[in-house]
Amino acid sequence: MGQAFSFTKNNLGDILTQGVGRSVVLKIHRLYRLMSVILLLLVLYAGCSMAEQDFRDIPSRHWAGDSVNDLVKLGITQGYPDGTFRGSNNISRYETAMFMAKLSEAVSGPTGDVDMAIEQLKKDLRAEIRELRAEIAQLKKRPEEIEERPISGSYMTRMMFGNLLTGNTATPGIVGPVGPKVNYRLKTTFAKSLGQGANVKVNVDTMDAGFNGGQGDLSTKILDIEGNMKVSMGFESPVDVKVTVGPGTVIHTEEADSNGNYIARSENNFVYERPYNGISFSTKFGAIDTLFGYFARKMANTGEIDVNQFKLLGKWYIPMLFIADEVNLYAGLDYLTRQPQSTPPGPSDTKITLGFDALGGKNIKYDLVFGFGQGSDGMMGGLGVTLQDIWETGTIISFKYKAVGSTFLYEPAQLDEYLFAGTDNFGRLVLAASGEGVVDVGLEVTQVLSETINLVSRTDMRLAPGHVYDSAHAQCALTTELGLVYDVAPNTILQGLYRVETIPSAADQTTDLLQMVLSFTF
Fold first, then answer.
1. Measured CA angle at 67 (ends 65, 73), to 5 deg
2. 124-174 per-position pLDDT tens digit
3. Which residues, listed in sequence order, are joined to residue 243 by a DSSP beta bridge?
4. Segments forming the whole domain that contains residue 14
5. Rounded-to-integer distance, Cα 17 and Cα 72, Å
6. How many domains are contained in the chain?
7. CA distances in angstroms from 136 to 16, 141, 142, listed in the order given
8. Is 519 inside a domain boundary?
9. pTM to 2 decimals?
10. SS3 label, residue 356
11. 158: β partners
């Protein structure tokens, strides 16, 4: 089956990374310019025999509502039988081909007394569509080739230097650069379609074990396997069954070099999210997407299961709610229990999660989440807001705030429940000091400098309850990073990043890290 890709003006770069030829993307970019003129002319001059249609998931004030109605009038696109348009869905290559074919037919219709300049524009558009359709036809002929080489993934290698401008972590107050340290991470997926909606994926992830990276047992954690199938059980929708076998969450521990120096102290507690051994069932009941799953969250060396997790999750899509144009509500229940024969036996914990993510207007996304655990201080709350180039200056701003109570993670080590508090802007665990809660505040800014260069800035601040930042609380920390991201070529990115971390309670409070990162996707 052809790979789906998002088809919007702002993410043509993403299309390149998903297997579409570069020449196809360049033609699509030109089509956007031509279509903006041609579609307006068609609305004005063409015989619009199609009646306007109101979609129940497009609010009357939606920023794209008029454009959708124009395309429906022209017969170029249409909604789903349930009266929805589903504008957030991805569009496949085949659907793109149908769209272009219908657009070509509309352009070929009578135009009345249109002047010569407009006629030339339409000729250009027809030519571009013909070339694009030809290239898409060639892509449709490739499933056998893809089937023979069903491999995708990414490779990242980086060189790190520590303590360039700050104190040496082994000798407080003495400047002593350490490094370089070179490591890599290889992620590869081998996928095979078995027909009838079934497929299997074998994933390889070296995580932090490449070169002089972490000291984890790579032989037992490098692989994870995922199997998917659809089963008809008499419900409104088929049941998607997913079976996973994997090592579960892997947490990186940064280790000192032979002289006791930490080259990358700020990388400590970085999280590699991997699947657990488990099975899940998901389907749709009315308007609610539901999932039930069982996962072996922790296993002993003998292979016996130490910690069981039972998960129930429901999601409900709402086209419009208050000031939001699209809202996804969700509620989850997780029950974790340690086997009675485990050492030590018990305990168990229950987590309830309520939240939503929403699209407010054209370029604003926000989400809100609440979690409930045990005890009087067993709550967690989080807020996130993303401003997607609202000033049309190429600026993307993301803000995150999260407060975690002291008993929300009831037994994080025994029950392996660290990730219920989430991760920070640098992919690290949000950890509190013993017996205390924690507040985490993150800010990320991306500024487009050119077609191939972005300026990135990330900041994460860890606070004690009451928004206190001092040396008396071990959880307090401030991490800031600034760097450049250069798109060297399609699927190839070069990054230069400089990071400073301050931990007031540490013997050597401030350390820094310079990284040169080269990554490829394939």
1. 105
2. 667 667 666 666 656 554 444 444 458 899 999 999 998 888 766 556 555
3. 227, 279
4. 9-144
5. 30
6. 1
7. 14, 9, 10
8. no
9. 0.71
10. strand
11. 183, 517
